[in-house]
């Protein structure tokens, strides 16, 4: 087709500048509105918030149990035992190379370390409540996200666009608003007897959670969800059982096993079981980083429950926090990530081809038209070189 070149105007130059910034932030792909608000995005949001509600359920039941019970390892042991009875049993019934015997022969030590990391991550964050405040825990627990992004970059070869870092910053701003609302409402709960020790435990827990989540993402995307959960159930039961016997041998006999405590233990275990069963599904759809961003709303759901159950004071800043976190989560997911093994050269080729339609050597002409043949070559190149991504937009 014919090419019509015109003199550049301030409006065209502004559009060209915006286009360049858009390619810098989001990559070469031009996203239309229909590419952003997809069914896949809404499904991911819904599933992520379902995980947050499960965490909310564990938080509420823990708060009730804490009145009479101090047995965090017993609570973990019940969850891992239920995983053992279901998913590990499923592995035991398998035949061939995926049988539990073959898995234990070749990879037992890997799953042992993964389970140890997960068990201690749960334990350290619970212990942190004895030494520091809720505000510190909410703020420092966000440390899991940058650690997770670094580990994903190194071990999973995940590459992020500048847009992803902006989205993470938006989510963390929402967490800051939530903490500010807690302070205004006077909900700065927890102990302050050894603040530095408590804060250190939170940071250790965040780092352990990041390691556990990276291992989870690699396993469920390359091996099997059932294998991952089954091995976590097996080794998690062993590790938490030993630790429970060593640390809680006096606390467990002192529990009053009335119907209320039994119901709370059952509800906690059910929520944890749902979280461990459901989370690998969402991680496989998106990424561990995206899932942890969606889990930032769990504290807000716990607060909304606490308004009715524990008579917390409500402020409108909580709604602002929820909206900001959700906006950041959507921002993170609308731009796909890519992996380093999909050569950056391929991405550069696509970038140059995509941007050639807007660039001209003399800088005076900002609108070029590709020939029909050139456009077909561009389409073929984009189709052949587009790198798969960990984000949900890979499905669009």
Describe what you observe in this structure.
The chain is mostly helical. Helices cover 71% and strands 1% of the residues. The chain is built from 16 helices and two strands. Strands 1-2 form a two-stranded antiparallel sheet. α3 packs across α13, α4 (72-92) runs antiparallel to α10 and α7 runs antiparallel to α12 (288-294). The longest helix has 29 residues, at 100-128. The chain is globular.
Biggest sheet character? 2 strands, antiparallel
Shape: globular
End-to-end distance? 29 Å
Strand order of the largest sheet: 1-2
The amount of helix comes to: over 70%
Structural class: mainly alpha
Q: Could you spell the SSE succession in H and E letters?
A: HHHHHHHEHHHHHHHEHH
Low-confidence stretches: 1-6, 343-396
Query: Counting H and I runs of at least 4 residues, what is the number of helices?
Result: 16
- Gyration radius from CA atoms, angstroms: 25 Å
- Tell me what portion of residues adopts beta-strand conformation: under 5%
Tally of strands: 2
How is this fold's topology laid out?
Layout: H1 10-26, H2 33-36, H3 39-65, H4 72-92, H5 100-128, H6 134-140, H7 144-155, E1 158-159, H8 162-184, H9 195-222, H10 225-247, H11 259-285, H12 288-294, H13 298-309, H14 317-334, E2 338-339, H15 344-355, H16 372-385
Antiparallel strand pairs: 1-2
Task: Give a brief outline of the structure.
Helices cover 71% and strands 1% of the residues. It has 16 helices and two strands. Residues 1-6 and 343-396 have low confidence and may be disordered.
């Amino acid at each position: 087709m014919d090419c019509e070149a015109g003199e550049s105007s301030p409006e065209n130059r502004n559009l060209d500048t915006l286009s360049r910034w858009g390619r810098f932030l989001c990559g070469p792909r031009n996203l239309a509105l229909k590419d952003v608000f997809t069914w896949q995005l809404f499904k991911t949001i819904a599933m992520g918030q379902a995980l947050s509600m499960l965490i909310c359920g564990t938080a509420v039941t823990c708060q009730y149990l804490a009145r009479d019970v101090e047995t965090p390892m017993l609570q973990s042991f019940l969850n891992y035992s239920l995983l053992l009875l279901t998913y590990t049993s499923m592995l035991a019934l398998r035949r061939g190379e995926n049988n539990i015997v073959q898995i234990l022969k070749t990879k037992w030590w890997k799953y042992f370390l993964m389970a140890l990391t997960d068990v201690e991550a749960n334990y350290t964050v619970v212990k942190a409540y004895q030494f520091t405040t809720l505000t510190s825990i909410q703020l420092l627990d966000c440390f899991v996200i940058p650690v997770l992004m670094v580990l994903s970059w190194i071990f999973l070869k995940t590459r992020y666009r500048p847009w992803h870092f902006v989205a993470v910053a938006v989510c963390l701003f929402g967490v800051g608003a939530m903490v500010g609302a807690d302070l205004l409402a006077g909900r700065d709960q927890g102990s302050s007897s050894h603040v530095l020790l408590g804060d250190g435990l939170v940071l250790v827990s965040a780092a352990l959670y990041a390691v556990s989540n990276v291992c989870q993402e690699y396993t469920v995307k390359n091996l099997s969800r059932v294998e991952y959960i089954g091995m976590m159930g097996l080794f998690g039961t062993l590790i938490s059982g030993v630790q429970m016997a060593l640390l809680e041998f006096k606390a467990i006999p002192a529990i009053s096993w009335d119907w209320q405590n039994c119901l709370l233990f059952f509800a906690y275990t059910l929520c944890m079981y749902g979280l461990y069963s459901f989370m690998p599904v969402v991680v496989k759809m998106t990424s561990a980083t995206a899932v942890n961003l969606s889990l930032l709303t769990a504290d807000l759901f716990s607060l909304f429950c606490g308004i009715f159950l524990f008579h917390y004071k409500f402020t409108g800043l909580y709604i602002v926090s929820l909206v900001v976190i959700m906006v950041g989560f959507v921002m993170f997911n609308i731009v796909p990530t890519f992996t380093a093994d999909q050569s950056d050269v391929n991405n550069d080729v696509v970038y140059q081809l995509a941007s050639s339609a807007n660039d001209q050597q003399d800088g005076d002409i900002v609108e070029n038209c590709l020939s029909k043949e050139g456009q077909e070559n561009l389409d073929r190149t984009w189709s052949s070189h587009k790198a798969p991504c960990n984000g949900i937009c890979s499905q669009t």
